Amino acid sequence: MLSSTTGKWRRHALLPILLLLMVLAPSSAQADLPDVMNRGPYTVQDIQTVLLGTTTFQEPNSDGGAATSTGLAGSLTAQIRGSMYRPSDRTVPSPVIMIVHGNHASCDSGTAAATATCTVYKRNDQGYAYLGENLASWGYTVFSLDQDQLMQRQDSDAGKGMHNRRILMAAALDALYQANQPGGIPISADADIGTTLEGKLDMTRIGLMGHSRGGDAVTNFIDYNRVRPEPLRRYPLRAVIALAPTDYERRAPYGVPFMAVAGLCDGDVSNQQGARTFERSQYIKGDDPFPKVLTTIQGANHNWFNTVWFADADDATQTDNACRTTLGNNIRLSGSAGTGAAQNYVINNADKNNPEVNTRISGDPARMGDQEKIGIATMAAFFRRYVGGEGALDPYITGELSVNADHLQIPASACPTSAAGLRMPCDERVSENYFAPPNERVDLVRPGVNNPLGLDALGGTLSGSGFSNPFIVGGGVSPMPATTPDGYDWCNPEPNQFTPSQLGISGLPTPAKPCPMPAAAALGGQNGTRENSPINHSYGRQLALAWDTGTPAQLTAKIPSVSNDMSGLKALSMSADVNLFDTRNPTRTAAAEYNPDTTTQDFTIALKDTNGVEGTISAGDEKWGNALNQSLGSSTAKTHVILKQIRVPLNVFEAQGVDVSSLAQLQLRFGEAGKPQSGSIQLSDIRFQEADTATPLILSDGVTPNAGAGYGPPASGPNPQDYLDIYDRSASNVKLNDTTGNRYADTTWVVDDDRVQCPDANFTSIQTAVDYASPWDTIVVCAGTYQESSTPINNTANPVATNAKNGLTITKSLKIKGAGADKVMIEPTQAFTTLAGTTNYLRDGGGNVITVSRASLGSTDTNELFVDISGVTVTSGTTYAEAGVGFLNSAGRISNSVIGPMKRATTSGELTSMPHGWGVVKVGSNIGAGDGTVENEVTIADSVITGYQSGGVFFDGGRGTDGNANNATRSGIKSVGYVKNSVITGSGPDSLIPQTGIKYGPGARGFVKDSRITGNFYTPDQRQSVGILLTDAQTEANTYVAATGGFQATGNVITGNGYGVFNANGANSAINTAGLPANATGNYWGGSAPAAGPSAGGIEGYSGDASAGPPAVPSVDVSGYLTSEPSLPTTYGTTTDIPPTAALANPEDDARVVAGDEVAPLVRGFDDNSIASTQLLVDGTLYSSDTTAPYEYSWAPDETMYGQHTLRGVVTDSAGQSTMSDEIEVTVTAEPGPTGPTGATGGTGATGPTGPTGGTGATGATGDTGATGSTGATGEVGATGATGETGPTGSTGETGSTGETGPTGSTGSTGDTGGTGATGATGSTGSTGTTGETGATGSTGATGSTGETGSTGATGGTGETGATGETGDTGPVGPTGETGATGATGETGATGSTGETGATGSTGETGATGSTGDTGSTGATGQTGTTGSTGATGATGIGTTGATGPEGPSKPEFVPTLKLGSVKQGDGYSLLTVTTNEAGLLKATGPDIGMSFEIPMSAGNSKMVIKASKKSRATLRKKGQIKVIVKVRFQALAGGPILTREKILTIVKK
Hints:
This protein is mainly beta and 1550 residues long. Helix content is 9%, strand content 25%. The strands form 15 sheets. A nine-stranded mixed beta sheet has the order 1-2-6-3-7-8-9-10-11, with helices on both faces. α3 (129-136) runs parallel beside α8 (370-386) and α4 crosses α5 (213-227). The protein is globular and about 90 Å long. The two termini are 62 Å apart.
């Protein structure tokens, strides 16, 4: 235990200056922050047992074991029951919270496993009474779901009840929905709720909390709910909490606010998986509009959050020094208020449902221990914030409370009070890592798939220096990786298999790119982790950073100019942790006690703006959180590398003078003086986030404290129901999200066999990309031929024939996205004669060109393992394969692809030895039972299956080795197959090989629609060649299909087959006489009516009657046949390839560059496949090109380039499509140009005539300056020419501080300065005024307006400028000030001459007839010179059209120009003029201001009104202006490519 005199260097590492103390003072919003520990105003009704009906579930044995009714894999009809806590006096509907617990004992006594019953049930559901009662008092109905029966029916070694919990949860929500309807649920032996809940529930606001395996279940239920088959109901979820999930299914949540909770005195798996779920949820769908949160709690054990489990002494015995309960130095939190019977949770079943007697089910706040209080403080706050809409609770979620003086991220009333709890300060207990949605976040560093060590998330450069190899000698990564050029490295600890021992795999699981970790037997090593996971670690891509004593290191991320305004956001956040096992870090004590004095790591965070002003903070300061405390614990299971949040408010940097609206770079500095001189950390991201708004943007009903639960749709979006509705879960439409090109979801791996089409590809092999990818990633396959080879793993859960091979083996959910079936060919290594094993085995995980198999744990619902393949051709070449694509115990989709040809037998002997050769097969090895078993589906859409041997598509519902009797028996698994808009073509007539177009095996169901099934004709025996063959397929109805049956074929062309459709028994030996007739209505059979029997004489046949009757029962219903052939596809679908986006992200438009200085233009682009190259154009001419991101160029104009130039970027994708960015104008000057026109000058004496301004047209002499106002500080005077005569002195105004002088326009050598008139008393120097639009020079005798500079005026040496009195310091660039009232306008610069006949077309097109020359830009302010007459508008280009210019540099054929001006705030906004040189269609979207418009363009101008979002209007009011990137897509009316432009639009206050 720490001595009270021990100094905490970390608390005093950064002594803030007074200004920072003021900045960090609690806001009024924090002062008014509600205490979530308090009870609300509603009366709580506890219902200890609620019965809502029954449901049936069955979780198959993953090893293929039998589904015996009395065993773990048996089907069970169980009661939907639990405990309920509700606000009995609430008059409006209440939101619903459902709690799902994990695996624990089911019975207190009398276990009867055969019937899954108990004499006395454990009632684990009652262990969350404290949370239920608290939420009910604030207006929620909380239902804690009893799973005592469920735990006696689950795949205990693998699935752990995952599937069954999903089914039970869905059934419970269905029952609550019904109970809320008029009439409620009728009273029965299994239902006692009646009408109690009628009209009382708000089923549009639902939250889920899952404990342990229940955490798995709620996480996976998010996606299961999304794809739940029609007509079953889906539910809008507004918050999901996973408390210590294990998540074997490796699913990542999206579409809902999500929180993972990790107790750091837990076993290892629950923490690493919860952290992994948090990390992966950030990538799975980049535009997910909901936040993700990781809450870590020191000293907590997840089992002690459940009072029933605590009373059962779960995890009471610990040997870890930090987490045991018997040492004087441990920090283990209490699960109860005390140890006496009067306070403790005790078991007393004498009055089981009485919480005063059986106190383990009590929700009494007085009994709550440390963990229950922290549970309410974290979980109740999350539910109240997002389900209830209480925006006032936002600070509890974001982690922002750590900046307060007490650093508490929970209310003080929730702080531990036990002896162990007091051994650690309360502010160190809880850490919140808040990951904001993309509309409130700008990612700066996220190690990407592409160039993770050199590319930041904004497309800029990431670089490092001084780093050491982060891997340790003798560590757990062998061989030790070589040191990278910059020292630091990237990694992802996620292995291909989490549970090798259960899968029959020897050795330790190994990631493709492991993170630094200790030796297997060392503390934190794999030998001590559950399932020997690679490390007890957060997952996802990370940077590994290490530095040694004597060598300071730094990591630098550049911020591109178009993305450098963070003024609308609150905080800089990053996720980091310390590699506790690396001895370069501060030494941990042998006892592994809490001691941040010696164990905390630290480094400097430096944020710099474009003016060079830098602000710094110490990352280890506890004001920013406690991420850099090393993990405690003396045993591997209790040590962790969990990435926690460092959160620094941006106003801390603003207080140091940093302009957060114009940032240049962020730097992390390690090993500086006063900081640890060596160390090793992990860093997963750096981000700016959290909208700086008064009211939260996400699911908020307002910020009134203690408002209680709202109801109905959210007052602020987005509405989860809307996002649920967007996803099409209808039959055959389940697919994976395509996040390619999404800047917020960098999860795409690129493969190119020769790196020609995609030079920046990650790999040349698809299998390598599969091994590196995380589940739910995307693999883009560029044009090429890919010969692949892999060896599948054989075990009982994934049977594989001996010596079988695959081309590709995929055992994780992935999207395989090819460039097109005509561009990508996948085949096995042609050195193989056959992929089949020693024996032929169709229903296994080997022998295929591509195999998708369930080589992992758990059940196999569609949402658990799904592979989406598109845009490829799969062929076996000269190698025999059992199938082109095989799905084993898995689900997926094939679209826009060609499967075939497959190697075919040429003799009967070959056919005997190689009997298969299917196009696509869906097979399984598990046994299901009942209607509650697992379901998985495969869809084939817009594809061609051809050149097969035995058949095109086989959706099987049987199982077993070839020839096994189980081949003809239903396995009980819900096997579903869909074929639509596809072509299935056999090779018939054929005398050697019997063929089947599409086959549905025993129990399989689905449909075939709008497809062609032709050419399956075996001349020796037509019965062996069928277009669509059903062998005991499910034609009967069930819960999921209509009364017409489970199979349908409609809208198809079925011709040229031995039989068009045949409905056979399981063995395919006779017509099926069971079930309904196969539905084959509305098809085209060749123009004539089909006939029973084999096809003959142009009449397509089908199987005859199932029974003779009377009346006769047909085996196939062919009614409604078509007499004319429908228009159906004859080939595969087109792979859409959208042109890339392009932007020049650096420098800013209208930048000024001194000749000889280097500029770093940055081209940024995104594409839906892959970017092949970029180019930089200078004045329309190719300057340079690049094929490796970041696409940063170096441009150093010399003295020959004075004047204005244009820069543009061109981005070309892997399909050869190019997009040109909007142009950026850059002015090259001889010396630093003015920062902007001069602002109002304080009154001075009369200013002498201004000398002519060089370069921008002669400047007239300055007229008399009016009365002197407050004189600003005398700025530096430029080189003075001969002094002009002193003008008369204006009356001296009261000398005050001179208004800030705006930056001077481009100043050449100074002209003769007029003699200074008598100057009034000089006031104190004023700060430089903000530059206005050519601001008035003086308050009285105003300086004359500047003569407009002709754009084509020769740029001569700068004219000498007369001194304008003593000029104040040059102010920052501002908008042009208004023209001075007096002084004649300087001579207008020469009007652009008539456009010359286009001799050389810049775009490679015919030289355009010279259009009217653009009016020259305004020159510097001049006094003299009468207003020159405006140059005549250039006449239309003289003469005939110029000769065609030479080919332009890689420009698109159609190159419209785009010019956007500024808009001023009005009722919405004023009209914006857009000019384009081509007639076309303009489409623009600007998500940053919430605008969207679509306007047909004329050849001239079009106008539009832009409406701004609430967020942008608030920012505009606060900042005065906002800059928006407007993206525009052009396409000529005549067609051609779609071109994309980006333009920076500046919107200013009126």
